[in-house]
Amino acid sequence: MKAFSRVTFLGGATGPWRVEKVSSLRGAPLPAVGAVQKVEADTFVTDPAAAWALQGVRSNERYLNRGEKTQLAKLQAGLGRPDSTRAALIPITKSNAWWDLPQDERRSILEERSHHIEIGSRFLPAIARRLFHGRDLGADFDFLTWFEFAEADVGAFDDLVGALRRTEEWHYVEREVDLRLSLDRR
Amino acid sequence: MKAFSRVTFLGGATGPWRVEKVSSLRGAPLPAVGAVQKVEADTFVTDPAAAWALQGVRSNERYLNRGEKTQLAKLQAGLGRPDSTRAALIPITKSNAWWDLPQDERRSILEERSHHIEIGSRFLPAIARRLFHGRDLGADFDFLTWFEFAEADVGAFDDLVGALRRTEEWHYVEREVDLRLSLDRR
Description:
- 2 copies of one chain form a homodimer.
- With about 190 residues, the first copy, chain A, is of the alpha+beta class.
- Chain A is built from 5 helices and 8 strands; from the N terminus they run ββββαβαααββαβ.
- The relative contact order of chain A is 0.24.
- Chains A and B meet through α1 and α3 of A and α1 and α3 of B.
């Protein structure tokens, strides 16, 4: 495992990211909270004051081919940019029908038919992204996707998630919560 | 997660599978034990008497295409056959160089150049197999591979692992232990 490969998102009353809006798009919602804290570390963390804790790990790429990986590496920006005062945490779980598909069919649906990688790359470097995997852990969600962007790119982010949600791939999403966050500078 | 998706292999003094032979092929060995117990359950189990406990989860296929998946489903036999009195537990960890490769290159090395799936299918249904994943868990090994076969197929199993170890894919294996087991009917 890489150093700092584990993430815990703690939802509670306090934390650096203030919750601006929550949409429960499919499946069970998450208990309402005022703030989110993201902790990347070697271990998962707990906080008795948190209403929820979501766990994930950074892992290898599951679908990217060499050309896409090279292209994304060129375009994408890192997390923690000074003007990245907006963020989104989008936990997602896909159906058993998705996970039972062979690798070639998941790849075809994800990219050749849904253009997931291509859509995401259109919004680089403005929308920075980090994917955490939870499925093998038996975590609450298969994926925790974290996005950071500037206030000026809030509309672009809406376009990005809107485009993804209209794809064939999204037919396989059975739980999705969308938390929009704002960096609390107090 | 599927029911009973987690496995714990407990190495210790007692257990249904007697250790016949252990080969530490690459990387650190495992402490010597006399027997192995395999526990598939909803949770990982612990045993204070065990010398080691290896954890893994059943997960989705990472490389199989539709044709291969269909073909394997037709050919393969389940675990627990009455004449499956021999088994092998082969824990494996691959290098960071492997995990950093994009999906298409890992697939090419695994199948188009190393014929991993094709080699395994040649030994079906004689050699039954179940793969558990440990990497996302931060477990001791990336994979725990479990094989069951009849005493008459011990030589075939040697041929199978011998063929795999001569492949390009195996250049990326940085730790491998091979435990040969025999069902203890006492």
